[in-house]
Amino acid sequence: MWVSVGDLVGRCASLAALLEVSAYPKPGNVHRLRDFPGTSYEHFLAGAVSTLPWMRELADRSNEIKDARREWGSLGIGESILGAVRDMLTWQRGGNVHLGVILLFSPIAAAAGAVAEGGRVDPIRLMASIREIVGAATPRDAVAIYRAISLAMSKENLGEADELDVADPASLVHILEKRVTPLDIFSICAERDSVCSEWITGFTVIISEGYPYLADQLRSGLNVNDSVVNTFLRLLSAHPDSLIRRKRGLEAALAVSERAKGVLDAGGAASDHGRRMLIELDEELQRTNGALNPGTTADLTAASLFVLLLSGWRP
Asked: Which one of 50, 108, 118, 240 is least enclosed by Cβ atoms within 10 Å?
């Protein structure tokens, strides 16, 4: 049966988010054996499904723009991000379960629509396409992205900003008057937020680190669950989680990263010793009521899965 580019990308996006949240035990995060107060595993499942039509539409639209040789500024990625966030909040009652995923998946979905061939996407071409698409995003996209972030996130999770504060309505006026683009904004927060950093660097961590590590884990014979958990640990050990950093500071984020490295050094999710350490770390982080939740690392892991699925892998 023929499947459109948009259908392919939408299904890969939804499945990636579902596989990421189902992996366990992913320390400090919601997973299939662990809920948060007010936010459950089922909320994440619903949020994952809600992203599908938006990623499908982005891919189809970018495919049309490519064929018509129009400018990428007409893509409207910001409105798609805002629409996806609204649907995420409509389809479940657990709050913000997938803002980071939506911010990462949207450029990937759009870029995949432009470079997919024969039902697959080459990651190298994908990275080049992402750079082109995010580089063309407009001030109107920036306003829509600001609205999406403001809709989804609490002030505690956002942290404070010296300029272009999401919580300040005057920021939207400034963006339009001064022609501020999403890349301009994300360059301000790139040092303290990994999602912003990915937009600025062309999704380097996801495509150059997360995706190949995950693919190697699976090629080695590891099952899907353990491969995803180990990829999460690998990313966390190399990149202190920016959500933890905003909540508890850099020192706390570095300490959690060091613990993740220790689990990997002990054999990771597939070894008896590593799994015992993994469970202990999960229990320890869960006792902080979300203060030590490596949520951004989970988003990077989900995006790595998205790229893997686009490349042709199937569970």
From this structure: 118
